Amino acid sequence: ATPRSDWHKAFEAFLRFKTHKYKGITITPELEIGIEPPRTDYVILTEDETQDFEESIFQIFRKVNILEYKNPHDSLNWRVIHKIVGYAHFYIGVAPHDGDVANDQVTISIFRAVRNPELFDEMMSDGLLEETGTPGIFRVIGVTNLPFQIVITGELQGEEYAACRALTDKAAEVDVEKVLEDLSKEDDDTIREYYGVFLNLIAEKNPKVFEEIRRNDDMKYPALMKVFEDDVNEKVEQGEKKGREEGVKKGRAQERKEQIESMLRNGKTPEAIAEFCGYPLDEVKKVKSEMQDAA
Question: CA 212, CA 216: separation in Å to the nearest integer?
């Protein structure tokens, strides 16, 4: 099985610290639907299908809620939509559960940081996607008879969605600060651990944001300093190191590309360059094609 990404662990932590206040909520990651996978990202079960959720992103929820989370670098396309719709129907018809599951008690949600403009334009043009009146939440219609929403977390508004918006490698400092503020008010050790999982990932992906917060607000967020300082320091250092390594890698790739371009301009054939430099021929041909396109 493919290992769960840190993004998924952080998203699960978000789900847990945002829903812990509701009674009878069960979150199951990587639920096997049937004897053999496929596996849906999350199934959220509610003991009371009339549960009154405060957050708009959860107000679609009924008894069985199938969730697909796409991290900032995952694709959101028709394949993803068909897959999660299939998972939901598969759950109703095949997955082990007590008794029959009514169609009107199963919902589908996809969470992603940013929208796919082409997909959204196509679906809206075809009448398959509509705005709900709440920024960032879109209703999918005509694809399945199950309630279906797409949540674009980067478009959600309001302090209550700061954590949702922060789940990206381009987190805003104000959103991270709100998560830290919420953590500082939390007394439950288990919920604080979920915050820790979440913040560790965000610190790794946004080292500059955390460094700025630490530099300006050490005393404002003692919960971070006292409880998660070592972990966050490590994640910040890892993020900075990864950024430097990626910078070096990009620099070397650019030097290599410039070398190939120079040799091509001097009349060398791709075959000769590949043999002389030890570069893959496909790479050299790609550089040549890009030069021709730019001409």
Answer: 6
Residue type, 269: T
Contact 167, 7 (CB under 8 A): yes
Residue whose entry in the numeric block shows the structure tokens 């403009």: 117
Query: How do 137-140 and 129-131 pair as beta strands?
Result: antiparallel
Q: Which amino acid is at 48?
A: D
- Tens digits of per-residue pLDDT, 211-260? 888 777 655 665 554 545 555 566 566 666 666 666 666 677 888 888 88
Q: How many CB atoms lie within 10 A of CB 283?
A: 17
Could you read off the pLDDT of 265-277 as tens digits, one per residue? Answer: 888 888 888 888 8
The rounded distance, in Å, linking the Cα atoms of 25 and 44 is 7
Amino acid identity, residue 285? Answer: K
